[in-house]
Specification:
Blueprint: E1 12-21, H1 25-38, E2 42-48, E3 55-65, E4 78-81, E5 99-102, H2 104-107, E6 113-115, H3 118-124, H4 131-143, H5 147-158, H6 163-181, E7 199-202, H7 203-213, E8 218-221, H8 228-236, H9 238-241, E9 244-247, H10 251-263, E10 268-272, H11 274-290, E11 294-300, H12 317-321, E12 331-333, H13 338-355, E13 358-364, H14 365-369, E14 371-374, H15 433-450, E15 458-460, E16 467-472, H16 476-486, E17 491-496, E18 498-500, H17 507-512, E19 515-520, H18 526-535, E20 542-544, H19 553-565
Parallel strand pairs: 1-4, 4-5, 5-6, 8-9, 8-10, 10-11, 11-13, 12-13, 16-17, 16-19, 19-20
Antiparallel strand pairs: 1-3, 2-3, 2-14, 7-14, 12-18, 15-17
Amino acid sequence: MNDLFFEKPAGEISIVLSGAAGQGIQTVEYIFTKVAKDSGFYVFATKEYMSRVRGGNNTTELRISEKPVYAYVDRIDIVVPLNNNALERIRKRISEKTIILGSPKYVEGEKNSIPVKFEEIAESFGNKIYANSVAIGVLSGIIGADEDKLIQNISEHFQKKGEKIVKDNINAALKGFEIGKTLGLNYEIKPDEKVRSQILLNGSVAVARGAIAGGCNFISSYPMSPSTAVFTELSRLSNEYGIIIEQAEDEIAAANMAIAAWYAGARAMATTSGGGFALMTEAMSLAGMIETPVVVHIGQRPGPATGLPTRTEQADLNLVLYAGHGEFPRIIYAPGNLEEAYLLSAKAFNMADKYQIPVFLLTDQYLLDSFYNIDEFPEIEIERYVVKTSENYRRYEVTDDGISPRGIPGYGDGLVRVDSDEHDEFGHITESSEVRIKMVDKRLKKTQKILEDFEPPKLFGGDEFDYLVVCWGSTQQIVKEAVEKLGNEKIAVLHFSQVYPLHSSVKKYFEKAKKTIFVEQNATGQFANLLKLEFGVDTSTRILKYSGYVFSVEEVAQRILGEVEKDV
């Protein structure tokens, strides 16, 4: 790979923690990123982890910068190994410039190694378990963090464990802080005061907060990584926001509960992953037939079957696109960043309510587990479309746009009939071919109306492009930074956060490009195939990855450059 892509930008550092599950890597990540953010530094953090509670090897990447950072890079400036095999799994990412910082037994014989006796220092304060606080302190000292913010965040994290534990951890962290400042690593990162007031969160929290902004007051789920984090976040906030939480016996029950909750007047979501959603597909047909809204969040991971349950992929687009028997409209959103995760989660509830259809939110492990700092989320207007029924209420009244007035039981004088069989305007079962045709046409007519609320793709780069790099979902920031790194004004990025239905206006981008390059985290180019099917777009040039690991900025830059150079 071109060494140019591995050059460290000024005012930035990429730190990787590598160790076994159960060693406290997440604690170091959680506290250190907060210390860095509160000190005025921009932060990006993401993790990859094995499917086990103890042992194995997991890594967390932490990018600390004086400018906004939003994506995963291969480059490692400092690696902190926490067990014997910590370096071997990431050996390909370690360059001649990488500093290896850790306990002597883990860094012995390594080039550019700096031994720090984390455990011995921790034991001097009473317990070797404080080694994580020592590490947090060392890293904070290296980046020039605010000492008061280090003390504050250590104190807040351990306050429930008692005064002595808090004091010991603070002293261990301050000793590490002192060491970090004297290592001579001289990473000059200038703080930005406005960062201190920003919020630091990950994709799971963004989706959960977006759901609340959209009026979610009921969530049902059967736990399945990586989507469970959304369920647990909403559970944590349930008392504050009046949300009914139901951990169902399985995904079939979870989906049907969400549909029933909408029928009764709630605004409900089911959250799951690909394997769980496979069980929900019959319920999606029920929602399609009875025209009851439902919002489903799917955190993608590699399949088939159990696959790689803790890794990332974008291979469930086809599953969601074609889920359910029969034909009925739907909307599929795939946010590209945390702001979109929030906004589209909220919008999903409004669109489901407005069009009385299933609306899907496609994320993945990478997006859900990635942190960075952002400004406060905007207020979202909750749109409600329930009507008060009259005595002669027709639940499936044929209208010009296909959207019938939706009533709920007990609100008005009408009877709100629903039935999974085909039905007439009142909701009575029918086998009339004439009524059948009328009802199918009515339901499908909504699609044209839905396109009026189409979330247009975002173009990054100038209008005078020759090469158009197309991506969707969580790859947005990776691809955007990769193209920025290339510095070629003839290359632009087109990102789709609504992947279905697609408005014909998007064809103008493809007609303008001399070459279109599709970037996807799956083996078959599912979104490229959809665009080819919908608009006849040339999708022959594809950059695909399906190892379970996320694209890096450097990898995408190199592969895009390779496609461009083919035309030179």
